[in-house]
Amino acid sequence: MNTDFASIITIGDELLIGQVVDTNSAWMAKELNKIGIPIRHRIAVGDVWDDIWYALDEESKHSKIIFITGGLGPTSDDITKPLLCKYFNGKLRLDEETFAHVKHLFINVLKRPMIDLNVRQAEVPDTCTVLRNDIGTAPGMMFEKEGKIFISLPGVPHEMKWIMSNVVLPMLPSKVKTTNIQHKTLLTAGIGESFLAELINEEEEALPSHIKLAFLPNSGMVRLRLTGSGSDEKLLSTEINRHFEALKKKVIDYLVIDEDLPLHNLIGRLLKDRGKTVSTAESCTGGYLAHLITSVPGASAYYRGSVISYDNSIKMSVLDVPESILDKFGAVSEETVILMAKKVNEIMHTDFSVAVSGIMGPDGGTVEKPVGKVWIAIANNEKVVTKSFDFRYNRERNIDLTAINALNMLRIAICG
Known about the structure:
Blueprint: E1 6-11, H1 13-16, H2 24-34, E2 39-45, H3 49-62, E3 65-69, H4 80-87, E4 92-94, H5 96-109, H6 116-120, E5 123-125, E6 129-131, E7 140-145, E8 148-153, H7 157-171, E9 180-189, H8 193-199, H9 201-205, E10 211-218, E11 221-230, H10 233-250, E12 255-257, H11 263-274, E13 278-282, H12 288-294, E14 303-308, H13 312-317, H14 323-329, H15 334-348, E15 352-358, E16 373-379, E17 384-390, H16 395-415
Parallel strand pairs: 1-2, 1-3, 3-8, 13-14, 13-15
Antiparallel strand pairs: 4-5, 6-7, 7-8, 9-11, 9-12, 10-11, 15-16, 16-17
C-alpha cells in the first residue's frame, strides 16, 4: 500500500496509572482514518525524559508522521516542550502572536493577572512551526526532521481537537501520501461471537486480501466491520458493498442495524421517524438508561423523563407498586417491573416505556435471586413485554448489560 502511516504518542504518568483514560488517541485515529492516514502504532509513555525520547526515535522508524499529545503545560512535570527543543536542536523563543493571545485570554476573558508561568506558555522552540490554539494557552508545534513530521499537541482534549480540526487535518493531505480507506459496519444481537463466526465463515473466506473482517463484541452484542483500502475509491466501494450485502443476508435473523450507530442513537432515530415518545422507570440502573437516551442531541423530541425508583418507597408512592406485591414477589420480579412500566407510561403520557429492576452487586444477591438477576419490561398502550436476565458479572458490567438489553427490547417493540 503506497501510503504514509502515522503513530500517536500520548504522554503523562496519569495515563499509565489509570487515573486518566486516554481518549485523545482514539479520537485522533478516527479522524486521521477519515482522510486516509492509517495508524501504525498508538503508545502511551510517562513523564520520563528518556522514555519520551526513545518513543520519538522508535516511531520515526515506522511512520511518516508522529503525533504527540500532553506535557505542554507550564509546570515542572510538563517536560515535552523542553525535550522537543533539545530533540530538534532548537532554542526557546517567545512567540509574539501566541503571547498576545495568552495575554488576551487572561486579561479580557478570564479577568485574571498573568504570572511568569503563563508567559512561558508562549515560549516555543525556534525550530518549530507554531500551530495556533484559539481556545487555550498552549499552542501546537510542528517539526520536520529527516523527512518525518512531528506534531505536538496539548493533552487537554478540547484544545487538541480544536487544533487538529482547524489547523492540522486541513494541511495534512498536502504533506503526506494518503490512501482510500472504507469501513462498513453492522450490529448483531442474540448470537455469540463464535457462533457468528461459524455462520459467516464462507463469506469471510471469500474476502480479498485488501478487505478485512473484524469481530467487535461488547455488552451482549457483536459488531462486524469490513475495512478495505485501495487507490480506486469507486471500485473499492463497489467491492466492499458487495461483500457487506452478503454478510447482511447471512446474519439477517440477528441484524440490529447495518451501520456503525450506537443503540441509543438508533432508538432516537426510530422514535423520531415514527413520531413516538418514550419514558423510563429505573431501579438498578439508577438513571443510566436516561443518560444514554438523552446523550443524543435532540432527544427532547421523543424522551419525556424518568422515575428513578431506587428505593422501594418510591416504587410504592410514585409508581403505585403495592407493598403486597413487593412483599410477595420482591422488587426484582416480573410483577414489579410490569407495574413500573405501566405507571410511568401513564404518568409521562408516552407511547412506550421501559422499566428495569435488578441486583447489580457486589452484595444483595440470594440463592433465588443472585447478583446479576434482572427483570426488564417494555410497555405501550396495548401490552407489556417482559424478560429476565442472569448476567452475574461485576456491578459496572451488569448495569451496562441491563441498559443495552433494555434498549434492544425497546427497539424490537418500536419496530413491531
